[in-house]
Amino acid sequence: MRQTRCVTLYYADGMHLDVTPARRTALKEKEGVIAHAKKEPGAPPGRYVPMNAYAFGDWYTARTPTEERFAKALNERLYAQAGIAFADADVHDVPDQTPLIIKSVTTVGLQLLKRHRNIAYAEETGRVPPSIVLSCHAGHAAQVGMGLADMVIRQARWTARAIDSAARVGRLLSVPNPELSTELFTDRWPENQTQQQGYARHLHTLANGLESAQRGNVQLEDLQTWLRVQFGERVVTRSVKAFNDRLGRQVKAGQHGYTPKGGLFTPAAPAIIGSLSSLAPVVARAHTNMGQRRFS
Description:
Elements: E1 7-10, E2 16-19, E3 22-24, E4 32-36, E5 47-51, H1 53-63, H2 68-81, H3 105-120, H4 131-141, H5 148-168, E6 176-177, E7 180-184, H6 193-214, H7 220-231, H8 233-252, E8 257-258, E9 264-265
Helix pairs in contact: 1-4, 3-4, 3-5, 4-5, 5-6, 7-8
């Protein structure tokens, strides 16, 4: 199916692939242009849009290096989540050459923020905040060694404050490709102040809630309910179940303790807000990478 900037191939299992033809230029390696042309009657004339996705990908990768401890912990959690359990005597370090699905806390935080975006706009029409904008801001906000919840907060604030800064001077958010300034990731979103400020409110609400949870200013049941609103029923339910299962095992093994206020403490304290079970595949086919709605 033809789209504005790509051709979408649909598969029988419900998956789809967007193919975007590009015309290379001689100015820089992998730099080029892609066609932008709406197919509706009376649409404005088509045009070419500058693009260098390869350079952006290299830029993002350079700013989000492998974090070995995080990658190893995540890999082990993914094995357990898949139902692959090992007795203590059979546990071995993962070989260095074993591919790890996620290597950076920045990328996991980005996935959670995209999930939050998908939930927030599930019932709305029109364009949604583009994934490429969130990815670019994640690259700018990248900081090795941060906790997952802190990284989600940092990325949410980064985008929200960028919108706030633009709105204060009556402008729309502008996010260029850091490797090609003429390529604007925001050339189709936001379309107006209402649209961009609405998303900034979503992000500030998320960051405020996570910070409040970190301070312990919320009851666990209320936190679970709030998280389900932010990230979806399935993700949070699985996160809480995984935490309860882990806590049960630690209690049986005598590996738990108590905080000065009498609360239950475990060595592997649960990061409910940034649980790795949030990495389960998300069916998010209602929009494209650039924020355009997709309808089959």
